[in-house]
Design goal:
Elements: H1 4-7, H2 13-51, H3 60-72, H4 76-87
Helix pairs in contact: 2-3
Length: 91
Amino acid sequence: MRAPILVARGIGGGDLKLVTALGAWLGPAGTLSLLFWTALAGAVSAVVTAIRQQRDFPFGPAILAGLIVTCLQPELLSRLIEGLRIGIGLP
């Protein structure tokens, strides 16, 4: 059985294996950070691709960008979440 994201042709099998391997190396908190920053970088890549009127773009650079941010700034996502919580008045 194929993963739903592969059926929808969102990312390739190699990308999925890379993220899985990085997740095993980073642990649970690191994996969440990696996924967040990778999704953000992927969204930027998708917008640039749409502006250039291209159809596809490689997702590997977005994964690399997510990994770099996760490794260089491991607390950045938790600080962002905390800032958002304070900004909207949650305890």
